[in-house]
Amino acid sequence: MSTQQQEPETQEPETQEAPEDPEMKGAESPQQRRLKKKQEGMVDERSEAEAEAEGETVHIKVFRYDPEVEGKQEPRFDDFYVPFEKGMTVLDAVMYARDEYDSSLTFRHSCRQAVCGSDAFFVNGSQQLGCKTQISDLEQPVRIEPLPHQEVVKDLVVDMDHFYDQMHAVEPYFKQEDLPEGELEEQRQSRENREKVKMSTRCIWCAACMSSCNIAAGDNQYLGPAAINKAYRFAMDEREDEEIKEHRLRILEQEHGVWRCQTQFSCTEVCPKDIPLTEHIQELKREAVKKNLKFW
Amino acid sequence: MSQSYNRGLIEDYGRWKEFSAGMWAWIFHKFTGWMLIGYLFTHIAVLSTAIGAAQGETVEVFAEDLPNVEGTGLTEVDIYTATLGGLEGLFIVRLLEVGLLAVAVFHILNGLRLLMVDLGIGLEAQDKSFYASLILTGVITVASVPTFLRGVGF
């Protein structure tokens, strides 16, 4: 016991004294020393990793564009050779490229587990969630581009404003005003109804569907699959009153609402959460018809 | 959407290799639809040249040129027979008839598929139904060849 405790005591003074010494500043600041040490470590780590995975690299081609830097205004593809690791995703690969090769490589990411919906890219010609796509499933070189049909801000970052506008246009929040009697009473949903809207609640707002939709590309007013799916989630919720559902359908049945969908199934194909988007849009179309066609 | 630069064809049909079944179905349906509209107007235009047939208008043709006229040498036939005979005598027209059938059959079958999609029936099998309509179109088209090309190749 006693020998184990002694060891850290002897090491600590060394590291703590150094930054307090004013004379050291002129020769080599502590920050510089730390950076140097870090760099040395990094070099060691990298060469080790390279030795380990000899030849096991992934070739990725990443779309680069930066309107604010003169030399980067012309879009181009940068090649990166990233050491492959088992279970590596597209996001892991671009993160490695950013951390180790080019820190100016820009893309959105947050949770890395397909929940936040930040990292939808155009990978090898289809919209995919970077963190959910295994690099071993893809053909090399892996082309990673920003989502099509959205304006590129920089590298893989696209302008999501229009997508969010469309999402908000369908009033994506629960609107029931009559609360149940009693202070602690809950607004219960039947199991069947929950099951009906279950898939539609999984949307993570990644905009992959909107980007894949040929119609949304040519018609900026079209609500798009994600927004309609969001509307479906509330329109089909039994806890909302009939008038509220009618109000929702009134938004959807407009010219640029559900009727723009031409059932290409592109959105359903790319949705990383496997939401049957086309099915939901079609169901809302039928609801809209039922609401307006009365034979009795 | 407006772009600050040209990203090339990845925006639309440049990625045709990555198109899925539903996308192809949409493209073919549009394409065949336009073909059928084009055919409809050509059909009206061509047949309107034979309107006079009801009034007994006739033309003189060489009977050997027309498959639907009996006899030899210069013969007087009504203008409708002459028009149709003139068209049917051309190999290219016979070939186009096969194409027209293929286009119409695909449009009908995919239309049925879209009807099912609109009714919400079997949406999870939408790609299979597209392939099925393609195959069925092919079979019907091939089976029609002996009928359409009789006299010019069969």
Write up what this structure looks like.
The complex is a heterodimer of chains A (296) and B (154). With 296 residues, chain A is of the alpha+beta class. Chain A is 43% helix and 11% strand. Chain A has two domains: 57-158, Beta-grasp domain (Ubiquitin-like (UB roll), Roll), CATH 3.10.20.30; 161-175 and 193-292, Alpha-helical ferredoxin (Fumarate Reductase Iron-sulfur Protein, Chain B, domain 2), CATH 1.10.1060. Chain A has helices at residues 2-20, 24-27, 30-52, 90-101, 161-169, 191-197, 208-212, 214-218, 225-235, 242-252, 266-270, 277-292, and strands at 57-64, 76-83, 120-123, 126-129, 142-145, 152-154, 157-158. Chain A has a five-stranded mixed beta sheet with strand order 2-1-5-3-4. A two-stranded antiparallel ribbon of chain A has the order 6-7. The longest helix of chain A is centred in the first third of the chain and has 23 residues, at 30-52. By secondary structure, chain B is mostly helical. Chain B has two domains: 45-89, no CATH class; 90-153, no CATH class. In chain B, strands 1-2 form a two-stranded antiparallel ribbon. In chain B, helix 1 (21-48) packs across helix 3 (91-119) and helix 3 packs antiparallel against helix 4. In chain B, 13% of the residues are buried. Classes of the chains: A alpha+beta (296), B mainly alpha (154). The interface between A and B is medium-sized, with 33 and 27 residues. Chain B: The chain crosses the membrane at residues 91-109, 130-149. Chain B: Keywords: Heme, Iron, Membrane, Metal-binding, Transmembrane, Transmembrane helix. Chain B: Its main location: membrane. Chain B: It comes from Natrarchaeobius chitinivorans. Chain B: InterPro entries: SdhC_prok, SQR/QFR_C/D, Succ_DH_cytb556, SuccDH_FuR_B_TM-su.
